[in-house]
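Re: your question about Phosphoenolpyruvate synthase

S., sorry for the slow reply, the queue was backed up all week. Below is exactly what I fed in.
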Amino acid sequence: MKKTTLLYSICLLLFTTTITAQKKSNNSIKELIESYKKDIRGPYYRIKWFCKDGSVRDAKDPCPDSIGGGIQHASFKQSALDLRKTNHLFFGEILASVNTTDFLDEKNNYSRLKQYQIGQYLASVDDGWVLRKGQFYRGAIQSEDEETWGKNFFETVLKDDSFLNKNYYLIRQALKDIPHNGDSNIAQSMRIESKILAEEIPDFMDIRIKIHGNPQKSDIYLVQNYVKKNASNISTKQKKAFDKLIATMNEFYAPLNYNTIAKELSKIKKENTVFDFVKSFIEEDKTNFTAKEYVLKITDVLDLLRYNIALFESSKDRLKLLDLTNQLEKILLIETQNWNPETLEETILKTQTLTCASYATGLVEAWEFDIIKPTFSYTLKNDETTLGELNSLVANARRIVEWSTSLVKANYEENVNEYAAFESLAYGFIDDRIRNSITLNLGETVSKLNNFAAKVSEVNNNVMSISNQGAIRGLNPGYAFGKLIVVSGNPDDVEVNTNNIYIFQKPPSDLKPVAGIMTVSEGNLVSHVQLLARNLGIPNAALSSENLNSLEEFNNQNVFYAVSNKGNVILKLENDMTNEERELFDKKERTNNMITVPTDKLKLDVSKIINMRDVKATDSGILCGPKAANLGELKNLFPSKVVEGIIIPFGIFKTHMNKEMPGKNMSYWEFLNATFEKSKELKNENTSSDEIETFLISSLKELHTAILNINLDDSFTSDLKESFKNVLGDEIGNVPVFLRSDTNMEDLKEFTGAGLNLTLFNILEEEKITQGIKQVWASAYTERSFKWRQKYLLNPENVYPSILIIPSVDVDYSGVMITKGINEGSENDLTVAFSRGAGGAVDGQSAETRLITAEGSFLLSPARQPDYIRLPATGSTKKYYTTFNRPILNNKNINDIRELASEIREKIGGTSTEEPHAYDVEFGFKDDKLWLFQIRPFVENKQAKSSDYLNSIAPNVDINTTIKLTEKI
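Result:
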């Protein structure tokens, strides 16, 4: 009996441990947060003494001096400790209790440090958040211990030159949040306190918007006058909140005590020209400084310190100087708002200065700034400029705004999205960081320049009469009508509707077809989503976060949306549409765009696996899809750049589809055709299109599930094993491979189909390969794949997937090339997007995008994807993190890309009997060697580009128009 009880106890313990180790759901975390908010101790358990020798004592039993003493603070509830193990989430962090390395959390992309910052933000916007009552738990956190820990933390991490160079932005932000010098994030407090008041008192919203968007010292008087005017309607609690806000604003706008700063700098013994320059500015008499002089001089100091911080070898000196940069940045933000240029020349100067300040405050990397800096230097040489030069300057300045905002997102988005899944307030964190940066005013200044250029050239956006429309620019031409849906949070949780127009912070990589899209970041120009949008004539534009916020009031309203081929954008309510715009949506015009995929040439009797060397491009749509056929052709044309491969042709798929489908008394293929016959009957019965689509998706889902469980023929699996051995050089299970879906409905002359079906990465085990084959076949019948085909093809039921199997190449970086300029450049240029690791750029990562010409390489956007995957020889994928302080592509790579494009045009384009067209090429680099993975025609929607309406809204622009720099702006 005792043995049984003991065994039961052991099993119970093991079971409990397993349960504890399981990741907690978002709902469970929400419940836990709510319980902490109501608890007078929050996530804390009780006060303890933590001794230097590692022992822990009760609150009334201090650590004796004989063992080195110790510190006192709260311990954590078991639920909070469990959350750390299961979800790597750290609520109510007590810094004094943490090891420096653990808190930095480098292996998780500094997640714990960033979570501390997000936690501080949530506490400020939500009355303490998990510490709503626990913030008053006496003794839980000792501020002097937190500051001592913070000082030691920074002095430790700042010893590392590499860390500082790679994470300059992150470390300066951390200095604002981690106590170490009696400091606090006053700017954030000011915005949050005004936000909370505006939520309680709607009439205060206009002043809150002013404080958030265009903060100036005069805002103090706005608040004071509001309180005075509305005293009878303000409660005692609200009056205290207003008093607190006014005190915070006075503290924020108080002048720096330069004498105190000078004393701190006197402790730095390093003598060099940089330090002399900094000291000179600190000691300079600033009594008569204008806002412009402040901005110019502070930017110079910040720029010099960013570039030369490593000259100061002492981490204590570095800490003092970095603290100084944050102090100076606060004054910079204030004076930038006070500098109001009147002429074009001075507005350009301000743009140039704030661009430099973006680099100086860490929002742009050094190599990025070095590349774009020359484009700002030529405009002011004479007393006039041209419209073309001005447009170029505006475009480049706007890039800096985008690069800056995307760097903030790249640093924090992963953690913010994780938190937002159980705490929606976390979404405000990134916006708060952007508002507390020079990006806000740079964006406003660039918008003024753009509006001036638009006035000269008569190119204007017409977007709901919102402000700062100069930040909006078209990417893909087209027009649409539908319900406007504004998605300010994580787009992955949004179920999109084909008929709607969506505004995203960032589009999901597996976006289903929609009527139109706008995104805060243009993202990756050559991602599958962008290529599909371009192919189908779906209007697509980029806008700013401020624009997105302004458009939220029109959410769920019917709108007309158009993007011209010159990039100007129209977005108006349904009632404001012209008769010409209403006529664009005649249903007859739409059916003329639909195409039928020919099936008469299919060779479905080929039931053996094919060596990729034995096919060529003309076999596409006959034996296999275009990926395999084209890669077979490429293997012969570029033998050293293409791996070996085997192909599972259409015939093998069709053979298996002819098997009886379990429980249906018909074959899989008959079930598929019966489904589409039924949909035709429903259409003839005037059933609504939504009901027909629901029926089709439900039936295809059933088919998808059935194919996943289909039994593979023994003859096929034997053939597969032999092909691995004979073609790929080893037994199946020893060669990690890619399984790429390759249908007859891809890369058509009028339809690309890019990225609609499944690719499986780096599969090693035999069982996973055979199951993967079923998964790839079944992927042709997913909702997303069907909807994109349904939008353009008259016979989407006649999809035949083949499968291309190629050995994995563990590339250092990979991407896509379009052999023409997209949006910028000419037909002879190259648009290239690359990300680190495998699968780069195609899935919508924030890739390094370049326009490569015969003579140069112009950076359109740097990479902002913090994570990437590599392909280990053991199969599957492994995730890594990166920083952005170095470019992805080097000069040798760029020359190799030019050479590849030239060969493609000569060897493939030169043999074509059709008119010349561009190509979409996927490739990668391993140890600087180029590997070619895919080539397909680049398909654009010619109707969208040539539409009479789109041409009518695109003005003719003379870029040689001269403009005096003295003109008023």
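The radius of gyration is 31 Å. The chain has five domains: 17-184, 188-253, 258-409+440-452, 610-808, 810-938.

Happy to talk it through on Thursday.
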